[in-house]
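Hi there, hope your week has been kind to you so far. For a while now I've been wondering how a particular protein folds. I'm sending you its amino acid sequence along with the backbone structure tokens. Could you read through the record and tell me how the tokens relate to the sequence? Take your time with it, there's no hurry, and the full record follows here.
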Amino acid sequence: MKKISLIPFAFLFILGCVEKVDLIVHNANVYTINADFDIVTAFVVNDGKFIAVGGEELMDKYTPRSVVDAQGLSIFPGLIDAHAHAFDLGLDLLKADLKGTKSFDEVIQRLIKHRNTYNSELIFGAGWDQNNWENNQYPEIAKLDALFPNTPVILKRIDGHAFFVNQFALDKAGISADSKVNGGKVVLTEGKPSGLLIDNAMQLVEKIIPKPTQEEKIKALIDAQTLCFEKGLTTIDEAGISKEDVFLIDSLQKAGVIKLRFYAMLENEKQTLDYFLKLGTLKTENLNVRSVKVYVDGALGSRGAALKENYSDDSNNKGVMLISSDSLNRLALMLSKKSFQLNAHAIGDAANHAVLTAFGTALKDIEDPRWRIEHAQVLSKEDFSKLNDKIIPSVQPTHATSDMEWAKDRLGSSRMEGAYAYKDLLDWSGKLALGTDFPVEEVNPFMTFYSAVARKTPQSNDKGFQMENALTRYEAIKGMTIWGAYANFEENEKGSIEPGKLADFIILDKDIMSVDIDQVLETNIVATILNGNIVFSNRF
């Protein structure tokens, strides 16, 4: 295949044109993602915004300081990740990487290597998933204790909803068989703590984990930003953030250190809520603080998702509700009287039922709330009808393909019909916001697109997982652009290439709307542009 190269930004001094502008991009295949889904060949940028969109005639109407001949490459609006964790992504780079391990023995090997490299007083690993191991049972604490008898070891599960820790960590945190916690579980084996802490039980051991320093947080954000720009993400929705971290992002953005745009979902903690509900929403060009995230249940992989009936592979377990229905209803009614959106993490059918019930009551007389269900992973058939255009499902298509090997074991055939049902959710709500949930999944929006449309892993040769709930390419790209912007109350400033909107766009080396679907994952970002300025490029 002949390599295509872009003409670098050329500084042109053309006299006689009517209006001077910063940039013209032309000879491109531009997906505007406007209301008519128009495809054009050129657009004009000035002062960080699109001011004209159309054809090659724009070259004769403006005097540009810079011109890009895209040589037919495809251009899309900057991508929006509707559910992500930038701080966790960056901070996890400091931990032992346990993603992709095929056994607990491999986890042990990586921990030993990490200890030998960093020689730290506490060993923290992240990313393990027993569902991907040859023996997909939870690990045994004895193996950790034998190798790390005098060092606390804390291993975070891939979904962030479980810790596996050694006896030294249990002892240091004062955790015993008598330890109880609402909304979580200290899992016992033969009457003793097994080392497995589910959901809120994780808080019992968090007190022995040193909090990241300000310098570590700043580095985490910078590292996360780099990865996001490399993948074409220009806005991310940070799912659960403290007051202090909101102001850290704001200060770094004002200093020009962080250029990535953030939509902040505030943590459901009294100090943070009291401050912002009194202050009101906070909006700058790069930061939007107007939502609250609440965890309603745990995760399916750790059997913490709250189900109406017991797990198919655990007859004594229905999962965990992390907030009572009464507390959820009170929070929803309180926020319905404010300007803040409520974004509820709900995985299991019981959790989704509770959310839809609370939303239905709180939003009855509100015209345009745009409240969100984060994940909306398993719904009972009768609960789909509780959805409407006031509620936006915010889903992560890679969860469906990551979970498809074992989800049926957890849920059984009947419940699977309402699981990862993205097309059904779209039909009832009218819009979907799509995200990755990184670092639970990869920082890769093309995997999001591929999983939404193909409903399979790259290695799979089958026709796809429950293809009746696959999205079209048109629906998938809207979920990553204009619908994501709408879910953030930002559709008038981003999400499409239209005059008056922020000049955030990406240039790709493949047209993901037309290439064979299996080639989508081979797509590379040629350039990521924010406010008309390059923030990442592998060509310029």
Q: What stands out?
A: The first helix runs from residue 86 to 92. Confidence is low (pLDDT under 50) at residues 1-17. The radius of gyration is 24 Å.
